[in-house]
TrEMBL record:
The gene is lnt. Belongs to the CN hydrolase family. Apolipoprotein N-acyltransferase subfamily. Residues 238-496 form the CN hydrolase domain. Its EC number is 2.3.1.269. Signal peptide: none annotated. Pathway: Protein modification; lipoprotein biosynthesis (N-acyl transfer). The keyword Methyltransferase does not apply. It is found in: Cell membrane. GO terms for molecular function: N-acyltransferase activity. This is Apolipoprotein N-acyltransferase. The chain crosses the membrane at residues 7-25, 31-49, 56-81, 87-112, 124-147, 167-188, 200-218, 507-526. One of its GO terms (cellular component) is plasma membrane. The keyword Transmembrane helix applies. It is an enzyme of class 2 (transferase).
Amino acid sequence: MTGWRGWAGALLGVAATTVVFAFFAELRPGFVWLGAVAMAPWLAAVDRAPSARRALALGTLLSVTFTALVFGWFPGAIAAYSHAPAWLCWGVFLLIAPVLELQFLTAAWIRWYARRKVGTDSRLAWVPPVLTALVYVGTEWFTPKLFAETLGHGLYASELLRQGADVAGAPGLTLGLLFVNECFVAVGQGLVARRGLKPVPLVLALVLTLVGFGYGAVRLGQVRAAVRSAPALVVGAVQANITNIEKRAAEEGTYEVVRDILDTHYAMSDALLRSGPLDLLVWPETVYPTTFGTPKSEDGGALDEEIRAWVAERGVPLVFGTYDLEGEREFNAAMFLGPSATGELAQAAYRKTMLFPLTEWVPDAVDSPALRAWMPWTGRWKRGPGPRMVDFRLNGGRVLKVAPLICYEALFPNYVAAEVRQGAELLLTLSNDSWFSGTPAPRLHLMHAAFRSIETRTAQVRVTNSGVSAFIDPAGTWTSEMQDNQRSSVVMRVPAAERLHSLAGAWGDWLGPVALVLSVVLGVWLRRRV
């Protein structure tokens, strides 16, 4: 189909998929079914593309509309952080959208290519849909995605369907959804061509759906049976909702702001301790916004000693976000303060490795005085050594094996799986989502964290400065939730549980590279056969 009618139909397909994506991304149970048809209008539009250029144009357009509608909160947040004009942030964000969502372009091109090679050969009708799905998932694996999002994340709203993530992570759910979408595309195309209702695609869609729900039901039952009712760990989590620290420090003075932060956390923690005994206290990322243990001033040294004395006096171990210094290298860190084997106060630091580009970290290869002058808001932290489990001694001599995660690190399945494989029994996430308060971002970040618990079948304590803090069980269900932009504290009771093994926990994000290899093999086979 060519001419303006062809373009009108193609644009309608892009618009329909974009709108459905927007609803599906809200993670509401009533919208889960939209995942089965979200891609169908766009896939059908690509099938009608008369040229590779048209197919790539449809992929590019969807990458832009998807980015604008689903992540439209991001440019405003960056503008507020960097003080750059909003129009500039929007312009750059949409300009790089085809790179961030490259899977739409590669899937569109390979689909057009496969359709052209297969032609009217009904024996090979399965090749374009399968190749499209494999290239889509494979591309997402190697694309530098800021938010590590994928279509399968929308299935979080279904307690049963999300359990499938312990096989191949959220990308595995994406692959299943793409195949179901292909079934509905085939049915729709048959009806439009007046060839009647095709039963095979409908049966296949039904089978895939039943497999997803059936596996989820079985696996959920196993998880519930493995979790005991008695708590193995009692954690006090503090979400003080103290934000705009840099602005306040410029106006009130750094010491005064730090003083207010500490006094608030002391008071909220003492209130938790009065409610009952705790095994552990947790404060969020960078709650102590200076170096700990290597003070930069006399006041800083005094505050360090004050925190140590407070922990020793209360007799409860504390984990909190701070900075760690080694020579001239500064790290975003989680500090562990607790009893040692000799009874004295011991200190251990975990250094954040996965840093958000530019705002937290600038690669040495591009770092320069000119860049810093042009973008003075760029971060100066250095990357930590990688996934690391921390053995943290609690009162009574018990050693808790913790997989620490700081903010952005919760988005990376391989990173989390590597920590759990070291023997961790608890995921402990400290985060600062205040830059995105009032947007969908805090809840989306929580959803990502929940997938890490599903994939590794490991409970998680997540504490943020402004929300959303929560306890996440091995089935990915969050409880003890403290809402966005709320000052609150809560006691999280982590139940004892038998270790359940999973493929995603053992192999991490394995599906992406496998899909990429299979797509290359299938593509070469198609080229030689046809």
